[in-house]
Amino acid sequence: MPTRVPRASGTQRGARTRAEILRAAVPLFVQNGYRGAPLAAVAVAAQMTQPGVLHHFPSKEHLLMAVLEERDRESREAMREALREGGVAALHALEDLVEHNADTPELVQLFTVLVGEAVAAEHPAHGFFVERYEHIRHRIAHAVRHGQETGAFRSDADAETIAAMVIAMMDGLQIQWLLDRQLDMAGSFRRFVGILRQYLGDQQPAS
Hints:
The chain has 207 residues and is mainly α. The protein has one domain (10-200): Tetracycline Repressor, domain 2 (Orthogonal Bundle). Helix content is 72%, strand content 0%. The protein has 9 helices and no strands. The chain has helices at 10-32, 39-45, 50-56, 60-82, 87-101, 105-117, 126-149, 159-179, 185-200. The longest helix has 24 residues, at 126-149. It is elongated, with a radius of gyration of 21 Å.
């Protein structure tokens, strides 16, 4: 008697459809931003009707936030792992993270395009990026303070300022790299970290 292949449940089918819509939306947001990517275009890219898309995402704002949360999950986990140890280890891990970002240009471009739009307070992703940057600054500052507490870094350095500078360097290099892929984003960030370690008084040899 032939084995019967179980049919996917409605929940499974719904999850697959949502994933297909998200995959279709990402390149449109990358190329056109949130404002320039109409929901109708997402429906066409997903080979669905617009009401079909709205069945899974009640509005384009809901779709945007789902895209951001889905795409941010991996980068948040990578950042969490990078900063877990603190001190010099965290700086090394951030170097690895920048190198990893060079292998995910679509993700880098997605966030760069959308964060530029989201500077406007009325943008639906404004709060998302405000919270995201606060979280990352807090994590980096915590890693710096850990280095200070263990004696690896000078105690008079302002951890919050250093955290903001690190993020500014990462984001600035990403923008330049998106415009010119010949730029050595990872190498440039490693050199910045070397300068930062000298300032922080780290005596270990630079990598």
